[in-house]
């Protein structure tokens, strides 16, 4: 797969991260890289004072650096900024960060030598993936600490993932045939001034969220069968008069999923109206789809963005300082993603309650095979409630908090990487909640009669039953939940094609 700095897609990111697709570099884009590098070298020769090239960083921007110290300045920058803490980001996130940084530098606005980009791509293709602590970024001036840990490996230092373990890079690079580099003027700053940590976490989280939301619709449809829900609330006319595209589409998919079901009812047959978590599925999940669409739009821009500072504009012959490293666009997107996916879990947990609570249905209490003697799905609802409560805390927006840094020179920061990490946790929690709903929904439709199910939901039932057996007797359901989550993350649940 060729990268050029301009056209990387989320699908291509997925292929590189999860399927180890080989990455190549566009020769045409390298031409722009070479030209921007020439401008940096000319500026150094002419003793032009340019931030980050021959000045200090942050509050030290007014301190001029002697020419003989420019390379040391860049090396010092990487080492001093590599102060991340906490558990490491996953290997997948680190792979995404390497790819995104290479793609950003390839745009030709950062003034690095081609070898810097080539070495980043070499890390990917040789599966030399930096170990990057998850905490320590303010999200402006970019993801400084996480990207510094990434850059350490280019210098032959830091840690890498190797054969399922974490090893010092020095022990692995020789075995992999990787020669470290010596940074030159501007290159250290170009490597760490960017939003690639929050964007990498955000992109992978978005892809998982998209699958989770698709699956939540199919599972909700099965729950509707287990509760003999009313299909009339999904009539196209209702949704068309409101006009939200995503709401209309969710209603259409639910109708298609259940079109041949003998378990759903019409209004007045069993009851006049269902509760909101059934009746308002299109309105709520449609709003979550709106959120995901916004997030996708921002991510697709950011994965091809120049987020360095200063930027080199070769056509105009200018080196301009600005603030493209500020993570606010992705920070707000991540906070919205948190809310949208927390609501998916909220809806699912309330449907679980409707499946297990004998006061809300005519099914056996807690779907137990022997109510009283056996507790059945009682505590699975507790687990779901715990997860959605945790999500409510995580959904608090990270962007509304800002702590000034660098002696108040950097007086507003995005906290976007915190938002992205919390979004990832929320999506993982949501996946577990819908897995619990699926376990309960399968038990309910068994009681109703699986032969009466719609073809689409019956297919999902049959496949999922191969992972989690029917509840015939109380057992440790934790393993069932986690097995189903793992299966849902691997299975490609396709949305029903629209008519």
TrEMBL record:
Keyword terms, alphabetized: Cytoplasm, Histidine metabolism, Lyase
CDD domains listed in its UniProt record: PAL-HAL (cd00332)
Gene Ontology cellular component list: cytoplasm
E.C. no: 4.3.1.3
Modified residues (2,3-didehydroalanine (Ser)): 141
Enzyme class: lyase
Main location: cytoplasm
Name under which the protein is recorded: Histidine ammonia-lyase
